[in-house]
UniProtKB/TrEMBL annotation:
Presence of the UniProt keyword Transmembrane in the record: no
Protein name: NAD(P)/FAD-dependent oxidoreductase
InterPro entries: BaiN-like (IPR004792), BaiN-like_dom_sf (IPR023166), FAD/NAD-bd_sf (IPR036188), RsdA/BaiN/AoA(So)-like_dom (IPR055178), RsdA/BaiN/AoA(So)_Rossmann (IPR057661)
Organism: Abyssicoccus albus
Location of the RsdA/BaiN/AoA(So)-like insert domain: 195-362
Cross-referenced Pfam families: HI0933_like, HI0933_like_1st
The RsdA/BaiN/AoA(So)-like Rossmann fold-like domain, residue ranges: 6-414
Length: 420
């Protein structure tokens, strides 16, 4: 049996859901095909189950936070942007709240409420939703100009096809990279895929010994360094030491640069550095440390510094600088104090990679954007074929930027299928 639709969307993540709604609300008979039993599996676990659905900042800020080709979104934004997302969710009965850095969440803190907006809308618009249906292959008939979507159960025909199958990260949510194969079949280039927003690995003895495991540093500046020791990127946020390396927001944001430096430097071991006091220059910090030590001359250094840094980290610094643990302020040599302050501003260590693409929050790389029309998300190589979401070569930092990109490109792709 074959059923015909004006538009078929493959993939029921945020991008495919939005594409389906945009297509159906503009009059196309629409079918959404999803391999899982449930739609939006990744959306449900997003934002720690709270779904950071978008970000309430100006375009320039959004683009800045999408280091993987964010500029491509300027064009789609002129049709549907972050404000349209907020308006869409809220006008469908789910109020949003703004948290730090413009991050938008449902007031209820439940991603399910966001998903329900999409589910209700699909049903209101009579979108035919085929769950537990995996698309195995796609055929295009150049005579009838129709797509044949083949699944185990049956095949479906459509005039316009939107592929929104996501990346390769967290495959248990259904994002297993099927779309790359479909895109390649139509002649599209897939740029190199790599893990982004992923914890970083290190075989430094202080990591392997677990001495800092669980220690979190607030508001530090974390950098990835080039061959010459110069920062290629710095992120001022929180970070966390783990039993395998580092994690937390600053580390996640730096992760793709570790991957890229490994390629560039043609070596596994990459240097990173932490500035523990990014808001103070070395002179200011020296003054503060000098005063602290002077006020507590008879105290052990490790105790004097406790007011500005966690004890476990001070211990590590003292070991690294070969300062005797029993040293009091009175006995601290001036050169050791200088080294100490320098190390607080530049604590360098080696990392040797990141966790895998499957463990990553986001997949970097994807369908080459030069082959996609930014105004419509239509393929420049194949008529009436559209791509949206993480499948494209667009990747952002955490903070609502990836779902924003998925929803914006999804909307424009779905809407564009109704224009011709
Ligand atoms: C743990 C976690 C938390 C995150 N939190 C946030 C956050 O708070 N904010 C944010 O902006 N981003 C977040 N992200 C990233 C964000 O969730 C993704 O970028 C976004 O879901 C991508 O949307 P998408 O629709 O393109 O793809 P996906 O959400 O991956 O959806 C693709 C869908 O296609 C289906 N599919 C695949 N192949 C086939 C096939 N052959 N046939 C049928 N169906 C198929 C899949 O089952 C899946 O449902 C998070 C990611 C993770 C892993």
């Amino acid at each position: 049996m074959t059923t015909h639709f004006d538009t078929i969307i493959i993939g029921g993540g945020p991008s495919g859901l939005m594409a389906s709604i945009a297509s159906a609300s503009n009059g196309n008979s629409t079918c959404l095909i999803e391999k899982n039993k449930q739609l939006g599996k990744k959306l449900l676990i997003s934002g720690g189950g709270r779904c950071n659905v978008t970000n309430n900042v100006p375009y320039e800020e959004i683009i800045k936070h999408i280091p993987g080709n964010g500029k491509f979104l300027y064009s789609p934004f002129s049709i549907f942007d972050n404000q349209s997302i907020i308006e869409f969710i809220e006008s469908n009965g789910v109020p949003l709240k703004e948290e730090d850095h413009g991050r938008m969440f449902p007031v209820t803190d439940k991603s399910k409420d966001i998903l329900n907006v999409f589910l209700n809308k699909l049903s209101e618009l009579n979108v035919s939703v085929q769950t537990e249906t995996t698309v195995n292959s796609i055929e295009y008939d150049s005579e009838t100009k129709l797509y044949n979507i083949i699944t185990k159960q049956q095949s479906y025909q459509c005039t316009h096809l939107v592929i929104s199958t996501g990346g390769k990260s967290v495959p248990k949510t259904g994002s297993t990279g099927d779309g790359y194969k479909f895109a390649a079949q139509f002649g599209h280039t897939i740029t190199e895929l790599f893990p982004t927003e992923v914890p970083i690995l290190s075989d430094e003895p202080f990591i392997q010994s677990n001495e800092l495991k669980g220690l979190s540093l607030k508001g530090i500046a974390l950098s990835v360094l080039d061959k010459k020791g110069k920062p290629v990127i710095t992120h001022e946020m929180d970070m966390l030491f783990t039993h395998f390396g580092i994690s937390g927001p600053a580390a996640l944001r730096c992760s793709q640069f570790v991957y890229k430096q490994q390629k560039k430097q043609k070596t596994k071991q990459i240097k990173m550095a932490i500035d523990l006091f990014p808001n103070k220059n070395e002179t200011e910090l020296m003054k503060e440390v000098t005063n602290l030590i002077a006020e507590n001359k008879n105290k052990l250094i490790i105790n004097s510094l406790k007011s500005i840094l966690q004890e476990r980290f001070i211990q590590l610094l003292i070991d690294r600088l070969n300062i005797d643990i029993e040293t009091t302020g009175h006995h601290l040599k001036n050169e050791d104090k200088i080294h100490l302050v320098k190390t607080l501003k530049h604590f360098s260590f080696s990392v040797n990679g990141t966790k895998s693409i499957e463990d990553a929050f986001v997949t970097g790389g994807g369908i080459k954007l030069k082959e996609i029309n930014p105004k419509t998300l239509e393929s420049k190589l194949q008529n009436n074929l559209y791509f949206s979401g993480e499948l494209l070569d667009i990747h952002g930092y955490t903070g609502g930027y990836n779902i924003t990109s998925a929803l914006v490109t999804g909307y424009v792709a779905g809407y564009s299928t109704t224009l011709k």
